[in-house]
Amino acid sequence: MIGVRQDVIDLFSSRHRAITAKTQELVDAYKERYGHEPNALQRTRLAQEATLATRAAKAHEGETTEQRLDRWDAELRAEVGAGLTAVATDVLDRAQQSDPAAEFSVRDVLDRALARVAEQGGSFTRSDLIRAVSDELPGNLGLSPERVRELLDGLTDEALQAGLRHVPETDTSAWPEDLRLQNGASVFEGPGSARFSTVGQLAADQALRDAAVDRGAPALTTEQADALVAQMAASGRELGDDQAAALRGILTSGAQLEVMVAAAGTGKSFTVGALADAWTGRATPGSGDQPGAPGEGPRELGERRVFGLAPSEIAAQVLAEDGLTTANTHRWLGAQRRLDTARLGAPDRFGDDALRLRAGDLVVVDEAGMAGTTELGEIHQRCQAAGAKLLLVGDPH
Question: How far apart are CA 360 and CA 219, in angstroms?
Answer without folding.
Answer: 10
